[in-house]
Prior knowledge:
Blueprint: E1 2-6, E2 13-18, H1 25-28, E3 36-42, H2 46-59, E4 63-69, H3 78-90, E5 98-103, H4 105-117, E6 124-128, H5 131-137, E7 142-147, E8 150-157, E9 162-166, H6 175-192, H7 194-202, H8 204-208, H9 212-232, H10 248-258, H11 265-282, H12 288-300
Parallel strand pairs: 2-9, 3-4, 3-5, 5-6, 6-9
Antiparallel strand pairs: 1-2, 7-8
Helix pairs in contact: 3-4, 5-6, 5-9, 6-7, 6-9, 6-11, 10-11, 11-12
Amino acid sequence: MQTVQVNLADRPYPIHIGPTLLGDADALRPFVHGTVVTVVTNATLAPMFLPRVRAAVTTLGKQLVEVVLPDGEAYKTADSLDAIYTAMLDAKCDRKTTILAVGGGVIGDVAGFAAATYQRGIPFVQLPTTLLAQVDSSVGGKTAINHPLGKNMIGAFYQPLAVLSDTAALKSLPPREYASGLAEIIKHALIFDAPHLAELERDVEALNARDDAVLARVIAHSCRIKADVVKRDERETLGIRALLNLGHTFGHAIETEMGYGVWLHGEAVATGCVLAAELSAQLGHLQADDVARVKRLFTAVNLPVALP
Length: 308
């Protein structure tokens, strides 16, 4: 297991990266303090991962509340948020209840926002099961739901107690979901780390093959990049964290216009990064070879590079 520390001044927390973490009661133990645990997941992931999480929570002697939401970006809504509130109120969950977010970015965002707002804030732990969530959305405390007029427009900055990234879960990802996560890894390298970008170009075949060793190294490196940015500008007030939005202005517009879930988030971000590179070239900041390099890497990992 590898550990990356998010060194926030008042509430640092670890990101643990390794296999079998989803069912590891000992890994959960330091972060579950109340008598009740609420697990939030979706209908696709529940058969695969909920039994393992349930067993770990039971081993810790905790009461379990299970919330299974529909799967997809289209359900990152106020209705899903209300379903979590209702289940927790029905179970008489108090302020010591810990929420476990088991899933991708949609589950992490909705469950995290529920944790930020239920009784004005309760503990939660991210257990991301997608590559995109493990390297991006589970790290940094951005939680939100979507609105028909804009993506992630209603939310809160609210940090988890920990992130437990089970790399074995990535084996079950469909190809599009896996490639979607690679988009955020490439984005981090494009912004902050040219040598890492060259490593990703070198390791394309291993990444596409989901090589365990390469993947673990790349996930940890990407988490370190984001953790360093979050440490320096947690609430995006200094302009540093805003750099992480590369590709997202175009990307969110694509998602909103097409309808949430038609393209995966990473697919929209990949094309958004290419559009940003093309705009930069038009403004005289990048060369044509630079734009071609960006397109080439996204294409090599099976991501779109042009508007539909």
